[in-house]
Structures are given as structure tokens and as C-alpha cells.
Structures
1.
Amino acid sequence: MELEFNAEELAFRDEIRAFIADNFKPETRRAQKLTPSFQSDPDVVVPWQKALHARGWVAPGWPKDAGGPGWNAAQRFIFEAECARVGTPAMSPMGVRMVGPLLIRYGSQEQKDFYLPRILSGEDLWCQGYSEPGSGSDLASLRTKAERKGDHYVVNGTKIWTTHAHFANRMFALVRTSDGARQQDGISFLLIDMKTPGITIRPIRTMGGDHEVNQVFFDDVHVPAANLVGEEGQGWTYGKYLLEFERGGGVVSPKLRQALRNICEVAESEVTDHAIAHPEIAMKISEISLDLDALEFAELRVLSALQSGQNPGAVSSSLKLRASEIHQAITRIGVEVIGQSALIEEPMRPLYALNHESLLPEAFLTLVPRHLNGRANTIFGGSSEIQREIIAKQVLGV
Amino acid sequence: MDLTPTDSQRMLRESVARYVAENYDSEGRRKAAQEPQGFSAQHWRNFAELGWLGLAFSEEDGGFGGGPVDIGIVMEEFGRGAVAEPFLSTVLLGGGAIATCGSAAQKRDFLPQIVQGDLHLSFAHYEKDPRHGLDAIAAEARREQDGWHLRGRKVAVLDAAAAGIHVVSARIAGAGDDAVALFLVPRNARGLTLRDAPRMGGGRIADLVLDDVVLPYDARLGEDDNALPAIARIIDGALTAMSAEAVGLMSALVDTTIEFTKTRKQFGRALAANQVIRHRLVDMYIACDEARSTALRAALYSGESSNDVVRAMAASGAKCKVGTSARKIAEEAVQLHGAMGVTDELDVGLYFKRLLAFETMLGSGDHHLRRHAALMRQSASV
């Protein structure tokens, strides 16, 4: 076991730093800093993604032959840590972290050849059609129907909590193609072009004031049968595989660390009259920082044990569970640090396009919305209660 | 950077785990606890033969040059079996003091004896609870014609009953406010009184009174007039190792509790068939895994290459974070075992006490959280 970076790893770090210095634009940095939602608008992400794409660095977790950079655990961690340090926007996870790995494992050669390069280049923006109004934690009860008619599936139903459906040109969806003995049977995995006639989108505003999620309606939407992934009726298996990547297998701790650093900076500043000088604030920050230390080492342990492209398994559930709780604790201390300023609302979105003087100092603008939006963290991607069920069954055997 | 264990680390873990599994059970532990020294001399001889007592010392000091990660591996496996032998007191605290502060002659005289299992040590520093700070000591050493004269009183000295030599801290009279040194006090020194008691969860604990104990000049460890930074390093190393031991104690409790809730039936089904129980088991499991990550982190940061602040933050951080996990797991384990968990008939109670002892020793979790927060601000490193 060795914690220190060796000379090769240090050289790699310098390479990443130089790349960031050359390619990360100050206006993107400011826009990202002022983004309180989970995912950044394509306007913010695309320029950065293009720069990464030119170097082949968009999908650090993908195997090399699928278009990944072929980095080892240490390199992946260094890359994430360096990006987090300066606050680069994250690639839309629905492509790179979700449907990408799924297609790599289960897609046909044609599907891989067509979709994977478009994910990397940013030409395609994906959204995820999983939850439905009647199917949240009990995802397998989903009822959106896809009926086979000739060489098409005809899709009817509705999906909800669809992040960035209003930006995406493609959706991957779990749909019901038949009714089986168990509700998990008869689910299939479909790739849907969002421009297909019959799709409508209703925006849903969250309590933080952001428009990130939507409800999507399907009214006789014709999807080519070639857009089925794998076998008909096996969608549940694929869908669960994808969820492991949604939950874990990434590197989250550097971003959380940076979020905590940003709050420490605010707490050290004049604007808060040095909130951190109060022991109750300083000790809470220390406590969160210790939780983060543990998460970081858990991630490093998992990363060291996984080959790139490999699915993380049930450990993704415990990483997701803790990462989401720590995220919430960080956003909560952010609210506490600014005291009564937290009462002031700034409804304008996007915040980086703010064209008037706000009553809130710029450093405070995102803190409360981040906390409010952050409550979703223990709910999306499988609620914490679902993660506990998975761990109980798969790890503890109870 | 690579966090996978080396082959020799894997082998070390296997060998300690096997020894503990084969040699430690409820009955054996209870018998050892009846010994006047609180542990089994036979086990200690075996530890020496297996080479574990030399792990903490460099090869030139007569040891086998293991690092903090190796020590953590041994301590974690000791924890699983609630081993009561005084590895912490003799090897890490007392032996650590000689290795850190001792002269070449002192190291040559004493460290090989520890490695061979022939010498036990105690580390007598605190006079008040650790929350008062490392410098809250009043014991005094005065240099006179016939040697050093020591006066003072030390509390909560771990495993002093077995110690051939006590490593005692004292202020050096007339040498300035910061002047603190460590002294080697033989167990039969005139003027030394030891009041000894059994320690919660295993081992012994004692108060020492030094009433004009006269020592030769060379009884002082090294030459340094300010031993406090070295004492801090020794204690940080002990905190790191104890955190690994606590992980072993916790993982044994988590396993036992899962097993128990799978077999124990109420209302016609296993306890673990209830979601309210399952989720609590998961939270115990996660708390244990977080503690494992934290202890490993502290071990890796306690190596030679880390600076003092990083090392101190990692050690205090581990004491706090692992302590939080320890309390949660210990309390849940007793609760989920029901009334049987409160009895002295199951090992659950013993492990509970060992974890409570961990929380209590060398400063509470809150004390170390304060220290962590102060260091964090001072170094501006989140």
C-alpha cells in the first residue's frame, strides 16, 4: 500500500493541470460556480466537453477500445481531483456514466458504433426514462407500454423526474413489452429519439427554484425495433446494471471536498464576519471533513480493486448512500454559515446571467438553492431506503 | 498511489487472524483476565516468536521494520478477538517512546528485550484527563548531585502492573516553561508506589506516585529539553493503531449481530426479516466500513513522509470518527441482542466495554474533534 504519488503520477498531474490552464475558460468557471442544480446547462458543459474530447478524456471510466483514455485508478482519481479543484462542469452523466457503460456491455456492434462516439463528442445528449408517476422506488411496477407493430414499437405512457429532457435529443427508457409472472419480467430497454412525434414535455420546478427535471408523455410514439437493446424482456437486468454505474463507480469525493472548501472560504471571509471562528461551525466542518476522508478512502479502495469498465456491484450502494448524505451535510452547513442571509431569495435563473444587483453577495447565491435541491440526493438513483435493502440482501445476506 | 495490500501484508493478516481464531475464545479470555497482570504470558511469548513484537521497530533497532499499515493489520486482527495482551502499552507507547526519544545506547539496551518478549513497559504521562491538553503535567524532575529526583503523580497508566520499566514524563526543574523530558523508572525504584486495578474490557490500569524517586543520570530518555512534540507523535501513533484495533472489535460485533438476528425468531420469523432491523444492520455495516477507511487513512498518513499537522489531523480525526462508529455499533449490537446483550454471558458485553474503553482512552472523540478543527484552521487544509 502506498499513498504517495510516484514520479509518473506527478507528471500526469502536471499534464492535467496544464490542460486545464489552457482550456478551462474563466466564463465557464464562473457559470459553473453559479450553478446550483445537479447538472449544468449544455451551454456550460459543451465548450469544456469539446476540449476534453479533443484529448480523448471525456469518459475516464470506459475501457480503452470503447473510447476511454485507459487510465488506472490513481490517474482517474488525480484527474477528478484536479478538475474538482478548479470546478469544471461534469459531463452529463446519462450518456457517459449510464447508457454508455450499458451499451458497451449489452449493445449490438451497430449500436456501439453509432452511439458511443456521439456520447463522447457531445453530439447526443441523453435523458433517462426510468421513474413513472406510479413507479418510484418500486421501479419494476412501471407501466409505460411498448407494443411491437411490424418493425416498430409503439410507446404509450409517461416518465417522470426526467433530468434535462428539455435539452436531450435521446432517451433510454425501461418500457413494458409484455406482462410476465413477476413484474420484473416483460420489461425492455429502448433507445428513443426525443424528436419523434407524440412526445411532449412538462417542466417541473424544484423547491430550489431550478428547472432541471420534467415529466415526459408518450402518445403513440413509434420507435424502430432496431432501437431495442439486447433481448426483449431482459430490460430489468440491463436497467439494474446501469444503476450500479449511476450510483457508484465514479469518483465523487473530490467534488464534495471542493464544495466543502468553498464553504470554508465563505466561512473564513469578512462577508460572514468569520463564521468559522465559532467553535460550533468549525467543529461541524471538521466532522463533515472526517466523513469525507472516509468516503474518499472507500472510493480509492474500490477504484484500486476495479478494472476500468467493470461494474462496481453492491458497493455502489454504500458509496451512493454515504456520498448523498455527506453532500446534504455540506449544503446544510453552507446554509448555517451565512446565517440570516439564508432568508433572502434570488429567483432569477440562470444565476450566472443575473442582470441586476442581488441583495445577496455573489458568494452566497447558490448556497440555499443547493441545499434545497440537494434533498433529492438521497432520493434519486434509488432512495437511501432502497440502497439499504440492496446492501442487506447482497452484502449482509439478510 | 496504490491501496491494495502487498503480498506480505496479506500474509501477515492471515497469520494473525489464524492465531487469534485458534487461541481466543470466551473462556480463554476470562481465564487470562484472572491473571495478576491481566493477560496470558504464554500468548506474549508466542507473539515474540511469531515476530509481531518487532514490527514497530526498525531493523537497526533490532526490529523487523514494519510500517503503520502493518501495525494496523495486527491491531485490527487483535481487535477481532478482543486480545488483551499489552501490545499498545509495551510496544507502541513505551517502546515507541524509547525508539523516538532514546539514545543509541538506550535503544540497544531495551528494544531487543521488547522484541524478544522479555520486557514490558508502561507509558506514564497523563496527570489529568487528556482533555486538559498534553502539557497539563506538574510532575517534576530535579537534577542533583546523586542523579535525577522525580516527584509527581500519574493517572490511568495502562498495564503498569506488568511493566518492568515505566516511561514517565516530568518537567525539568529550572530549565524553562517548556522543558519536559521522559525518564525510565524501574518497577522496583524506591519511592515509587503503584495502585493497580482491572481495566474495563481487559488489561490493567494504575495510578503511579513518585515520591522522591532517585534515578541515575542516564535514566533520562535522550537529550531533548522539549519532549512534548515527541510525546504528541507517540500518542498520535497509538491513536492510529487503536483505531485499527477498534475496527476489528466492531467488525466482530457486526458479524455476531447479523448472525444472531438471522437465527433468533420472534413473531414466527427471524428478526432480520423485519425491515426496521435490516436497515439498522446496514447502518452498522457502513459505520464499520467507514471506520476501516478512516483507520487505514490515518495509518498511511502517519508514515515518515507526512508533516506533523497532517499526521496529527489524521490521528485525531480517526479517534473522533472511529469513536463515533464504535459507539453506534456497540450500542446497536447490545440493543439488537435484546436482554441477552446486557448480560455478562455473551461476548457482546465485553466488546461493548472494549469499544467504550477505546472511546475513553487518550482523549474523547470531542476532544480530538476540537483539536482537528483547530489544526484545520491553522493549516487551512480541509
2.
Amino acid sequence: MTTKHTNAADAAAALTGRKETQQRIQMMADRSEIVRALIAMRTSKNMTQAAIASRMQCTQSRISKLEAGTDDSLSIGELRAYLSALKVNMSLLFDDHTEPAAVRIKHLVFAIDGLLKSLGETAKSVVDDQEIIAGINRFYKEVLVNFLIRFDQNYKQLQPIIQINAPQQSASEALQIHSRKAHTHQTKAVRNLAHDA
Amino acid sequence: MLTAWTIDISHASPRAFEDYEKRHRREFDACFNNLDKIIKFLNAGLKMGGFQVGFLRSEGRGLYRVGQTGVPGARATRLYVYPDVHHAVMYILGIGDKDTQHKDIAAAHIKTDELRRQTT
């Protein structure tokens, strides 16, 4: 019997000798992501359960139960109230898999647009802070690189299926060209973004 | 760099866990799910004692109990663990309910004393 494990589900299954134990606990752990995120945010803000309870106008015992449960036992109302107590905004993205791809893409683009506007608002409030501006620039560069890599990968996967005509330049070539230009344009882009917001 | 925590079951009695799972499955699962949360917090860089959650309590001498809070109408269950913070190892020591807690804690303290000597 292996005595060292990297997760609780495997450890529990090794103790009971039943594979079913692992599957059950892993399923519970997978359904506890939101609860874990709430506890992590509360802890990072050095807030106690009592402080959250006070802002939510409920008992500490309720918070304790909520945090010890899974996402299934969490109501939307409680989630909203908990986040409000943390002064954290919540945004939801509904992605309907039964919608045609074009409609889903449109919704996702709107969602990205909304997030970029939110980023612009944030940038506007720190436009004089060079350190933060530099951080935003680094962030944009990282996002762009990751986006282009994924775009390139997806494009290569899609090409044999839908027989897209070859582009004039590949994503990696576009990335190299952009990298040369990006250095001089980044600060200006962030400032423009802040201004537009 | 953060060290990933491991869970060591070499000091636990598989028979006791098998029996407990058969008798109180929901509580058993909830305790291990809460242990999973703790391991994930530790892996994210939080320190033992650096986060307050209702399902984790110190029982002294390095021993902690992970509870099942959150299961309606459940039998109060405690999973006893010893976190070796120097080597990032969480030792599972035992499991029991409120009725057997004095005996369980006494038995777990003998193990934590031994582990503390070995690991510090």
C-alpha cells in the first residue's frame, strides 16, 4: 500500500481500499471550488468569519457551515452576500452550448469587451503610477503572446476540418512583428485605454 | 518556491477508516473534502494557523482535528491529523466521533509526540 499521497481523495481510498471512495471524494472536491475561492479571498483580506457574518447579518455558525460545505449547498443569494461582504464584484458568463457557434462567439467577444472596459476603468484610476502602468504593459504583452499561441494552435487544428485559406502570415510571424512594434506602443495604448474608459 | 504538501497515511489504521466509512459515509467524505481544502490552501502558500476555518481546530501538541461541519444532521466526526510544516507532510492519524474523542485524542497525542521527535 502506498503511504504518501498528493490529495485527500487518494489518501482516503488507500485507507479504505476502495476505488469508489476516491471517486466520491474527488467529486466533492471538484464541487467545492467556489467555496475554496471564498475562503481564500477572506483569508487574503485578513477577515474573520465573524466579520463576514456581521456584514451578512447572519451568525458565524452559518459562515462556518457554508465554508465547510460544497458549492451545491451555497445559494446564489449567499454567494452574492458573501462577495459583497468582501467588497468583491461578481460577474457571470453564460455560454449556451446549444446556440450556434457564431452567436456564442459574439457573446464571448462582448464578455471580453466588458472585461477590457473594466480594465480600462482600473487603468484610468492609476494612470499616473508608472509602476502599475509597467505592470499593465507586461500583462498585455503576456496576454497577447498567450492569445496568439492559442490562436495559432486552434487555427492549425481547424484548418484540415474547415479548409481555411492560408493566411498571409502565421500567428508566430505576426507575434514577431508585433513584438518589435509593441515596445514603442504599449505605454501609449494603456494611456489611450484609460482615456477612452 | 512552494513545496507541494503530501499526505502520509502510514500512522493510520486502515481498518478504523474502513469501518468508519461503512457506518458514516457522508461524514467520512465531508472530513476528507475539508482536508482537501486545507491541503490546497497550504499548497497555495498559506501557513497552518494562518487561516481561520470552522472545520479545523488545534487539539494541542501539534495535533489538529478536521471536522465535517456542513453536513445536516451529521454525527460529529473528527479526522485527526499532524501537519509537519518543516517537510510539508500531513500525517493522517485517526478518525472518530464525539463519543470517542477523549480516547482518540489521547491515542493521537502519543503519535504526534513521536512524530514531533522524528521530524523536528
